[in-house]
Each structure stands twice: as C-alpha cells, then as structure tokens.
C-alpha cells in the first residue's frame, strides 16, 4: 500500500509536484474526499500556481466519479473558497500551498459551512482511502457520475465581506498592497472597488513562480518592498497578503510592521462594540495586551493552542465572535468561524479611516509590550531541551508554568513560550515583557540553555 504520510499533514495535503504527488493522485483524493464526506455536491477552487488548474480539475473528476456534483469556482483565495463552502452549504477543497515555493502544491479541505477537516476530523480517513485506492484503483460507484459546473463567486464574496464592515464614513486613504504575485492580486481590486482609496498595487500579477519574493509576509525580508513603497509614496498604510491571501499583515505610515496581536486587539474591540460581553479567542503566543483589552471592553478572552483547527474548534464551542493568532490568521463568527485576512484588513481600514491620526498612533493603544518575535532553534531532543529550561526556572519566586502548548513560563510582567514543531526538529521561542531589555535577557537565557 502507498504511504502518503509525507504529504498528508495535520491540517492539509502538501508536497512537491510531481515528485510527491500528481494529477492521478489528486483524482484519487477527490474520490476519497467525496466518499468520506458523503457529499452529493462539493465546491473546488485553486490558486495561481502552474500546477493548480490541472490538480484541481483532476480532484473534481475524482469527486464526480463518486456521484458528487462539483462546482468549480476557479481562481480564488482560500477564504473565497471558505465563503463558497459557507454560502453554498457544500464541502470544499482549495488547491494551494500557501506561502511554500512554486514546486509545492496542496489541498485544504473543509466540510459544509467551512468546517475544518484535519487529522481528527476526516483527513486520516481520506488518506487511508487514498493509500488503498492508489494501489487497487478507485472502485466503481453505485451512484451515477456527478456533473462539473463552473461558477464565479468573486463578486458575491466581495459584497459579503463589505456587508460586514461599515466603511461608509472613511476618509480618503493611500494604501499600498503587496500581493506577492499571489491571490490577493485577484481579490483585492474587487473587494476594495468603490472605496475612497488611492490603491498602490505591488506584484498583483498572478504568478505562481513568485518572481519578486516569497509570498510569506511572516518573514521580514518579504516586507522590504512594501515598506519602501509606503515610505516612497507617503501612504497611510501598507498591507501584505500571503500566497493564498488568507493572511494579512500591515505596516504603518513609517513602514514599520504592525503587530498581528495589535490587529487582533483592535478587531476584538470593534467586534465587542457590536456584540457586548462576547467571547474572543486568542492563541497563547499572542500578546498579553489581547486578553487585557478584551477584558477592559467587557469581553471574555479564551486562550487556546496555536493552530487553526484548535481556534476553529474553540470558536464553535465557545460561541466566540472573533479569534486571532499572532501568525496573522483572523477568524470571524460571521464568516462561518473561518479565517479571512481580507475581513481583518477591512476592519483596519475602517478604524483608520474614521479617525484623523496615523496608523502608528491608532495601533499604539493595542501594543503595550516588547516582544522577541518567534525564534527557531534546531535541537537533537525537543523534550530534553524543554525540560532543561523548566528546571532552570523552577523555584524562582513568582514564576508559573503551564503546558497547554509546549511550555509557557510566566512572571508578573513577562512570559515566554517554548513549543516544538510538529514537522521539524525545532523548538520555537516567543518572549514578551514590559520592556525590551527584559525580553533580551530572557531570550538570551533560554537560548543559552536550548542551544547548549
């Protein structure tokens, strides 16, 4: 039997094309997806990577072979696929490898209403069937083959997002957007059309070879062009999207990065104004400013593990109106609990455009602490290195520990989290404190132990 464990990850399928997977395997995945979800109809979309149209069509054929009618929405962002799944009430599959290099591709799958499919919610069963059928062939279906129908949902997606944020009173703004040759170049012009914005586009040409820079704004080197263009044009704000445009990052009028935790706190405050007393989800490496601001505005903060499946599960369980991760994934109850960077960007533009100050002053109120950013260390033994760090801080006055996700060590005005990567021999360190000197001291102490 084939072993697909190298490409079927915790939350999606991802691997090198055609070395690790190809169109025949995509067709088998489509058949397995339709079988496991018991779908009579599904929706499929894809990004701008060279391999995406062929893989997407093969998957559609596979799903149709099991009797599912397939709505193909073609080029789209991942959150546009989630919109289609939610609005149409259909399981969905998005062909993208997000920010990975051009030779990669993948599948993000969901049930009807954009409910996530991960290892514990169907992906293991899909993998098992695909492994079996890659050896035996897909068996004949008792159901007649389904149909393949093309449908463009971009205008409906844009209209729906705009209906969720009041942008009617914003002042004129100059906005630089770096799409990184990804799907933001497809969605941004339609979503922002008609607003009083002087839009300065960077790399809107759809090109899955990413000729200018990686479509991964989490890496500071990929923000350099955006920062320079904001300063050059005197723009009010800069926005950067990743390859499949489900994450959005911002830089202020000086070209300085805006913390995703600050964006989380800002959007949380706006959502609480509409939903007094509501629950807000935040993962454990977001700034302490997030739960503080949520509490100050009458909301209930709930802390969860890192990862979209945990956020989405907690969103549903707690009836939360909004959730944010420090990786710039933003989740909305009004968007089927799914993540959409575009909706977060609209909130940021609405907040900026309804007051006169610069974005640096706007977000300063939500950015109360100094932070290290995420620092990766390659280690031989993740558990042993983590235990050594815990031992070093055990017995210190006022120090607490928790193991919700890795190890979090906290004091009165500082904390750090050390958590293992699920896929690489890495430990990821995040440090936050009241001042930069304390951050540097803690960072150096922990790294001294981890890298010893």
Automatic annotation (TrEMBL):
Transmembrane segments: none annotated. GO terms for molecular function: intramolecular phosphotransferase activity; metal ion binding. Keywords: Isomerase, Magnesium, Metal-binding, Phosphoprotein. One of its GO terms (biological process) is carbohydrate metabolic process. Residues 374-447 form the Alpha-D-phosphohexomutase C-terminal domain. Its cofactor is Mg(2+). Residues 6-135, 156-255, 262-369 form the Alpha-D-phosphohexomutase alpha/beta/alpha domain. The keyword Magnesium applies. InterPro entries: A-D-PHexomutase_a/b/a-I (IPR005844), A-D-PHexomutase_a/b/a-I/II/III (IPR016055), A-D-PHexomutase_a/b/a-II (IPR005845), A-D-PHexomutase_a/b/a-III (IPR005846), A-D-PHexomutase_C (IPR005843), A-D-PHexomutase_C_sf (IPR036900), Alpha-D-phosphohexomutase_SF (IPR005841). It holds the Pfam family PGM_PMM_I. Belongs to the phosphohexose mutase family. This is Phosphomannomutase. It comes from Actinacidiphila rubida.
């Amino acid at each position: 039997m084939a072993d697909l464990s190298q490409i079927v990850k915790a939350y999606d399928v991802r691997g090198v094309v055609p070395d690790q997977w190809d169109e025949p395997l995509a067709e088998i995945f489509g058949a397995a997806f339709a079988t496991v979800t018991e779908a009579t109809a599904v929706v499929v979309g894809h990004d701008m990577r060279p391999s995406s149209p062929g893989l997407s069509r093969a998957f559609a054929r596979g799903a149709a072979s099991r009797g599912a009618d397939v709505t193909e929405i073609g080029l789209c962002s991942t959150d546009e696929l989630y919109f289609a799944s939610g609005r149409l009430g259909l399981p969905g599959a998005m062909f993208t490898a997000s920010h990975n290099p051009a030779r990669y591709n993948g599948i993000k799958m969901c049930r009807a209403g954009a409910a996530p499919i991960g290892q514990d919610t169907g992906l293991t069963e899909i993998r098992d069937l695909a492994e079996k059928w890659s050896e035996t062939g897909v068996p004949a279906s008792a159901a007649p083959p389904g149909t393949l129908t093309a449908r463009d949902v971009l205008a409906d997606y844009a209209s729906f997002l705009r209906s969720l944020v009041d942008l009617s009173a914003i002042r004129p703004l100059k906005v630089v957007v770096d799409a990184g040759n990804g799907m933001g170049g497809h969605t941004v012009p339609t979503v922002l059309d008609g607003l009083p914005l002087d839009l300065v586009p960077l790399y809107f040409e759809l090109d899955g070879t990413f000729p200018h820079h990686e479509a991964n704004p989490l890496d500071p080197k990929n923000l350099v062009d955006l920062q320079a263009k904001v300063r050059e044009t005197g723009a009010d704000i800069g926005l950067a999207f990743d390859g499949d445009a489900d994450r959005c990052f911002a830089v202020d009028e000086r070209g300085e990065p805006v913390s995703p935790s600050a964006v989380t706190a800002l959007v949380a405050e706006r959502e609480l104004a509409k939903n007094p007393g509501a629950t807000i989800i935040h993962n454990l490496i977001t700034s302490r400013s997030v739960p503080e601001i949520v509490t100050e505005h009458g909301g209930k903060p709930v802390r969860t593990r890192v990862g979209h499946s945990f956020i989405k599960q907690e969103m549903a369980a707690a009836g939360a109106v909004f959730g944010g991760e420090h990786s710039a994934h933003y989740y909305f109850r009004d968007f089927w609990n799914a993540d959409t960077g575009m909706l977060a960007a609209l909130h940021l533009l609405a907040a900026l455009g309804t007051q006169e100050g610069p974005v640096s002053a706007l977000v300063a109120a939500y950015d109360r602490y100094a932070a290290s950013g995420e620092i990766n260390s390659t280690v031989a033994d993740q558990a042993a290195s983590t235990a050594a760090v815990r031992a070093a801080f055990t017995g210190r006055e006022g120090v607490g520990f928790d193991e919700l996700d890795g190890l979090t060590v906290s004091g009165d005005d500082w904390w750090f989290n050390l958590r293992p990567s699920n896929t690489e021999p890495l430990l990821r360190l995040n440090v936050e404190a009241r001042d930069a000197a304390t951050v540097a001291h803690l960072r150096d102490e922990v790294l001294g132990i981890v890298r010893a």
